[in-house]
What does this fold into?
Amino acid sequence: MRGSPLARAVMTVIALLALIFPLQRLTSHPKATVAQPRAQVSTAKKKLHLELTSTTVPFKFQITHGGEPIWSGESNSANVSTDTELRFPPEGIDLVLDVSWTQDKETAVRLALTPENADTMLKTVWGTMSASEVLTFSQEK
Amino acid sequence: MTIEKGVFMCLMFILLSNPLASGADVLKVASFSTLLTEIAQKVGGNHVNVAGLVKPGQDPHEYQPTPDDLKQAADAKLILLSGKHIEHYLDKIQQATGGKGESLSVGDALPNLKMKADPDEPQEKAAADANGMIDDPHWWNSVANVEKATTVVRDALIKLDPANRADYESRAKAYLTKLEALDQWAKRKVAELPRDKRKLVTSHDAFQYLAKDYGFKVYAIEGVSTETEPSDRHIAELIDQIKKQQVKAIFLESTLNPKVTVEITRETGAKIGGTLYADGLGEGDGSTYDGMIRHNIETIVDALK
Ligand SMILES: [Zn+2]
It folds into this structure.
């Protein structure tokens, strides 16, 4: 490259500056990387229909998700249902079912979960006077 | 009272007030696992005298029996081994005891998970199958496995000391009830954590059994054994996974050097979630099995939530 020494020096500085920015981006590891929206953990909620069926009435029940009660009550009929919205990742969800009866006899209680536009999944729990169980619902496989 | 009568009364008092002092009918047990020490004590009660040779907080991968440990093993009628190839000093025990006491590899009676053996680790290489896989020795991180181990130890005690069968059975039943309650508690606690956040990054690969029971996926910094250093490539892959999977926290272990773990948190922005008991009982919370599991589950769930 020909030209005055000053012009060459200016060109060199510009070339160096142009190099520094991409280099700095390549070599630094900003902590923000983790927070970038790569969306491995989906936050979208899904509409779900829940239905409880008990072979003995009356019964008291509570369903907990992520440590928070999402549905509870007392029923004199064998069937109760509700609609709710929850995050439903491919790995599935855990619902904790606590149920109690006044009658002292062995009883089955079934929880049916139907995500919007998907098949119903069923889980049955047995107990006498009370039952408590973590139920996993997954659409995988 | 004559002198003879006084001495006789004193001797009687000493013998009656200390059941172990009568010696003869107390079953001597030597245990090479902190977990099995607890189980043998819980199930055996006053009928056994358990020498816990691997001490709480000691790394069972690195443990080597001392001459005194071997002497205690030689004196024992029952030698409890963790099994699944973690005791790479079996020949020393065999030599010291001459096969006198009954050796029981409790872990070998439990369900098995396989792990990739470290080819740079001679003991692992020797134990590996044709596909380079070895048995994962960390069975105690599953409560269900500890329940099964309790029945194995109970049956061994009954076999050696049938006179006290009823006691062993009732003590085992009481311990099993507590373990069942612990497992129920753990399931409920883990249910607080969404299933897609159950990603466990720990110092070495010790939590596969826990992961299987409670729906976690494990990313380990080292292999199965604590004796090997992780390769740069393995660490780079792990950093990539932690970023991709948006893992919020990674965990240290009570028996390991935290240097590499801390370095990874610096690279990924994940926080240190706490210290876990990976290789058996330790000090503090982890001095009992119940405390150890509660500490581990609470630490993991609360950090990843
Ligand atoms: Zn280990």
Observations:
- The radius of gyration of chain A is 29 Å.
